[in-house]
Amino acid sequence: MSPKHNRLFKLCQKFNNYYLKILYNGLDALPFVVEGQQVGLIKENVRSVLLLKYPEVFCLRDFHDTKKQPVIELNPAFRDYTERTEQLDKILRELRETNLFPALQGWREEYYDVKSDQKSLLKMDRSATSIFGVRKYGIDINGYVRHPKLGLCLWQQQRSNTKETWPGKWDSLVSGGLSVGYGIFETAMKEAAEEASIPNNLLKNMISAGSVSFFFESENGLFPNTEYVFDLELPIDFIPQNSDGEVQAFELLPAEECLEKIFTNDFKTTSCPVVIDFLIRHGFITPENESNFTKIVELLHVPLQSLF
């Protein structure tokens, strides 16, 4: 098998580096438990700090359910959403000042819910979710054009150089995390307006296209992510314009060039699954032209629920 034919499979392995690490080497993080429910995974470099500095907030328990492993538990004396949030937020703001965890330097005052199934147990700043290995959810919109000369084309955005994460990298036309108080479709509509100024008369044609899930690890922590995907066919004369200062450029690329771009360091690693998924669903990547097709499809939908 040629190196070229292996490229797509290796890219899928890259954005699933932590999932594959668990699969082949076992789990090196401990479950993070709130109100008796696992909501995250905490690695040794994080838990050593939490247990040493904040023993009144975090404790090491011997067992959780029937799994024969210790867990890190948030003090069960914190009885409700508000108290848990306040206690954790105070600690995170203190840790932010220590520079121990690079992720916290991207503090945004934007909060994500920490959930068990559908129940919200607390909220934490978006920047902190990766150090607790909390599952994160977001939306991505594939804005595409059926060009009369170029064929299937995709719009991409270049993130602002001032973004806290992945500055200057190329990305899906529209993407964003699910913040507290916003639903999935509501987030997609909001981000479409802010990032690309897509009017409502075009957004009414947006179609839900499933989701992708992956488990990535970087120097900022753990990213067990699920992205809800939408497809939006756009007219050839539509030109996106940014309105929130978080995008510095847009470009429309034929499918072949989009595929090549995700192999470069210029593209945001955790948005690659969305592009690959789109190209599979639109018949550009097929079992006939990709020898690792089945493995790739599986790595676009890793079973995160089995780890939490």
Describe the 3D structure:
- The protein is α+β, with helices and mostly antiparallel strands.
- Strands 7, 8, 9, 10, 11, 12 and 13 form a seven-stranded mixed beta sheet that branches. A four-stranded mixed beta sheet has the order 2-1-4-3, with helices on one face. Strands 5-6 form a two-stranded antiparallel sheet.
- The model has no long low-confidence stretch (mean pLDDT 94).
- It has two domains: 7-19 and 135-299, Nucleoside Triphosphate Pyrophosphohydrolase (Alpha-Beta Complex); 27-128, Transcription Regulator spoIIAA (2-Layer Sandwich), CATH 3.30.750.160.
- Helices cover 29% and strands 31% of the residues.
- The protein has helices at 3-14, 17-25, 44-53, 81-98, 184-196, 200-203, 255-261, 272-281, 293-299; strands spanning 29-34, 37-43, 58-61, 71-74, 111-116, 119-125, 136-147, 151-159, 170-172, 174-177, 207-218, 221-233, 247-254.
- β7 (136-147) and β8 (151-159) form a beta hairpin.
- α1 runs parallel beside α9 (293-299).
- It is globular and about 65 Å long.
- It has nine helices and 13 strands.
What is the CATH superfamily label of the largest domain?
Nucleoside Triphosphate Pyrophosphohydrolase
Into which percent range does the helicity of residues fall?
A: 25-40%
How many strand elements?
13
Write down the overall geometry. globular
SSE-based structural type? alpha+beta
Largest sheet: 7 strands, mixed
- Look up the CATH topology of the largest domain: Nucleoside Triphosphate Pyrophosphohydrolase
Number of helical runs?
9
> Between the first and last Cα atoms, what is the distance in angstroms?
36 Å
